[in-house]
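Researcher: Dear colleague, please comment on this protein.
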Amino acid sequence: MSAKLIDGKKIAEEIESELKVKISQMDNAPKLSVVQVGNDPASTSYIKAKSNAAKRVGIDLTHHHLSADTPKSELEKLVIKLNKTEDGIIIQLPLPDGLEGALDLIQPENDVDGFHSVNLGCIVQGKSGMKPCTPAGIVELLYRSGNNPKGKNVVIVGRSTIVGKPLSLLLSQKGIDATVTLCHSRTPDIGEFCRKADILVVAVGYPDTVTGSMVKPGAIVIDVGVNRTENGLVGDIASDVKEVAGQLTPVPGGVGPMTVAMLMSNVVDAALKTD
């Protein structure tokens, strides 16, 4: 019996509808600036998805496209300027070498990606702040698909600062109350941990990282990976996982739309705080 698919696209559309109503009641449309340095094809694709979502909900998005040889000083000057005029700022990753420091120049209240060290620190301390979009999207996806993580054994494979680490902190916060295990490339016998998971999140960026033999029958599997192969886009889990899991997210159409929806939500929240 194949696992039931969790339709992230449908849930993201519900969130967008809610945001559209909020924005219609605001005096001014929220303002988001996306800064791109260079011509990375994946970055261009992601920005297009964000731009389309912004149009759907009523956010005023401006795309600042800089050349790959842009000096650090020019990028920093732009970010400082945008801090004064925008509700939200994104610097699209990856950046050319030597420019990463510009990320820290985004004011925490404008950091709608949720990557600033202040916002990550707020998660650690259980305080309010901008939450990273993919982890926040996964939590929202679980709740809205009827999979409350409270009291569940959650195993996360992957310890990036963009997904794995912040997600482990969010899920273990008081009020969410999951029991979280964070696995990584140095974890011996990851399968032993995965097979104990009621909810298994895989976020490493490599196809077939988790196979069916590593999954507890009936588990909820959240596939965060997006890998471009000769057969198209695939996630981090093997195809046989669907024969074991109870529910899982497809790639594409699972976590990806939720990430974009939560970005739009962060922009609206930032705008409401400045009204």
